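Follow-up to my post from last week.
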Amino acid sequence: MLHIGCHLSTSLGFAHMGEDALSINADTFAFFTRNPRGGRSKDPDPHDVAALLSLLQEHHFVQLVAHAPYTMNLCSNKPDTREFARESFAKDIAAMELLPGNYLNFHPGCHMNQGVDAGIAMIAEALDNLLFEGMTTTVLLETMAGKGTEVGKTFEELAAIRSHIRPELQPHLGVCLDTCHVFDGGYDIVNKLDEVLQEFDRVIGLEHLYAIHINDSKNPLGSHKDRHETIGNGFIGLEALSRVVTHPALCGLPFILETPQDKLPGWGKEIELLSRLADNGDSSCCR
Ligand code: FE
Ligand code: FE
Ligand code: ZN
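User reply:
Got it. Predicted complex:
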């Protein structure tokens, strides 16, 4: 069975997101830990958190994949921006610990012309301070499209970040693969999905892959644009995306739609479509 959901709004609270997810047959979902453009977050209401936790358990949800704001840049060239990123990330991790055992995904950052190696070093140094032994949240580095000075456009860059943090913290840091981003980054998941996943395994290790962002792309392979398209209507296409959702190496992971739908029923249709394709696939689950 495919584990799939979409991005949901936190505006009506945590438990409400669970209800929204159930209404479209999702068994996971994503949400922004605070406004996607940054800014303040309100402290979660413990009753609301408890209500969501019991809903997740009752309906057998798999891990949620929360998303840190896009503006959070741990490798900015401005010390204030780096400091703000660290503070908000620490708070977001603390808030995620109220929902034990879930995932917190983030964009590694933009090095702002300081060079990719300097960016990797700053991100790793920050994570070394933010992660802690005994945490139940797994923090995920997202594979990026390589727009501007984004760090994380190659598997090697993500592997370098992981390898620069203390070994005892490495189990708390995984990767989330975004199909639109890797395709934009030049990985041909349309014609060479097996090879791309083998490369991921060689460079990072598939055991460190925790979640998939399942999106089509408005742009062709290697365009470094990062513009998501609805499922089946972009350059990746339905056939290739159906191979992703049925690939034995990815089976069992939470799949999150970040497609440009504007209302819940739109994602509901995409969930129905991909779930049907996954059921028809002959994948033998390895997880
Ligand atoms: Fe993202
Ligand atoms: Fe994404
Ligand atoms: Zn994106």
